[in-house]
Each structure stands twice: as structure tokens, then as C-alpha cells.
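Entry 12.
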Amino acid sequence: MLTLVSAILAPIAAAIGYSSYKARQFEQAYPNIGELTDIGGYRMNAVHIERPETADLPPLVFIHGASGNLLDQIGAFLEPLRGRAEMLFVDRPGHGYSERGGPDNALPSGQADAIAALMEKRGIDKAIIVGHSFGGAIAAAFGVRHPEKTAGLLFLAPATHPWPGGVDWYYHVSTAPVIGWLFNHALVIPLGLRRLERGTHNVFRPNPRPDDYIMKTGPSLVLRPATFHNNAADFVRLLDYFKTQSHLYIRISAPTVIITGDSDDIVWEHLHSQGLARDIAGSELVMIKGVGHKPDYLATDVAIAALEKIAGHDRDLQAAARVAEARLATAVAPDANLPKAPAPRPIATPDLQGSV
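Predicted 3D structure (C-alpha cells):
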């Protein structure tokens, strides 16, 4: 019997040891470049760019999507906007290097409140809130719950409304008692590393993924056991949250722009982006043909024009979208030999790594 028990436990222990070793490697490869701020019992991590003398935009707060961290939005926006605004790039609670906080932070509303508290600590009274994908759910909750702090909202391929179906199986396993701990500590890292390349390509499809995207944005950080559990906990509660909270979007009065592609297989625009445009009076929906789930990277110029318009500048966003379409039409298509994306779903994270 002892031999049998040892034969079962030995590979589990080895897998847990390997995962612990790889998690430390991820953190060495992508050390924290932000600053941790106590917001009342736990610490939020963010990169804060002080307001430059040349600023022509209000403060900007960037909220990353699922399976991500602040490096994702830094990679898209920091350099193009440097010198133009005060910027706060946030690790959402339990992601990147932010601590999780209480159970409310498993919901977009709790994460919105955490970001509002962080803004106060950082001396930011009001900002344009920019949310990509899952970050769109937090941005919408922020607009509902903190209108006095909302100078405007920019949604990029947002996830904001109920969808038919559910979420991928491994999110349920990850959050299950006992078996979830074993799954997160023994299997997530080896499985996730095998699928990291394909997963990040799928997030960008049908567009090419930047060659340096993984190197610059540290997506492997989500594979750390606690972070993966937090990511899963966000997802398993999301559908019920939308069913009870999305009707509140009609309360949003801040200037709002929604930018989405018409080829997004991760978050379906006809449910989410068009739903936001319907619910938020006076909002503008900008549809970019041929773009998938990453308009933040593929149409950064359109997103910046939207920030300018929200700030009061005269910008024709529909014309800007047509210019982006013409530019993207000449881009090199993804390698045809790479594994194809899974069948379209209203909301999903491909394999064990995505950026919803």
C-alpha cells in the first residue's frame, strides 16, 4: 500500500515542485515595474506616469483584460501617449502583482471600486477610463458606480453583457475545492506553457500577433497558481454578474466611445459592443473591419483619436477607422500553418491563455 501511495504522490509532488520553480522564473523574467499602494487592507499595483507639462489630455486609467497584466496596455499605449497625459496602468486585483483583497474583488464592481480607491491614493480626481475586453466590464462598472471620477469611457473589444453558454471547463476545475488547488499547482503551468504560443496568436486572429508580444507583456504570469485561480474566479461569476448588473449601464452619462473589430472570435461584438452602444446614450460605436480582439494594438491610432474626442477635440472616428482598415489590409496575414482558432464563442479564453 505504501508503495502504491508513493507511486501516486511522487509525480504530483514533482509537478508541484516544477510549477513552483517555473512561477519563480516567470517573476524573474517579468519583475514588477510598478508600485504597490495600500488601498485599505490590501495593495494594488500600478505604473503611474505623472502629468507632464506638455499634457493635452486628461488623466487616463488603463484596465487590462483577463489572463493579462498592466504590461499589456503599457505595450499598446505608453509610448504613443507619452508626454500627453497623466497615466495609470493598473494590475487588476489578484492579477499581475496586485493583491486580491476581499471576495468582492471577484466581481467587476469590486474591482472598479478598488481602482477608484487607487486613484484617490494617487491624487487622480477624474480620468478617462480605458478598458480592454474583461477590463471593459470593470470600466462599465466604474462608470455606473463612480460617475464623479469618470471623465469619459473608452471600451476596446469589451466584454459587458450576458452571453449564451458558459466559460471553459478549466475555470470551473480551478475554482473547485481541493481538486482546484491540485490543478492550479500541478497542471496549469505545464499545460499553459504548451499552449501559450497558440493562445496568444488566437487572441490576435485574424490579424498577425506582434513578434515581441510575449516578450514584452509577460502573459505567463497568469499561469502562477494564485493568479490563475483569481482569473478563473473572475470568470465563473461573470455571466451571473452581467445578468444582474448590465441593465445599469443606462445610468452612464460620461462621454463614451466603443471600438471593436468585426472579426472578434473571443468576444462577440454584436452582443457586447453593440449592447453598450444601445445602453449608453450618446455613445459612439466604431467598427473596424478585419480586426479581431486586439484593437488596442491593431488600431492604436483610432483609440488615441477616441481619447482626443472624449477630451473635447474634433475627431472623425469613423474616418479614422477607414484609414486603419486600409493600413491593416496590407498587413501580413498570420502563418497559415499555425493551429486555427477554436470555433467562435460569445466569450472565451482560447486554451489556457488568452486576453479577454
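Annotation: The chain has 13 helices and eight strands. Confidence is low (pLDDT under 50) at residues 334-355.
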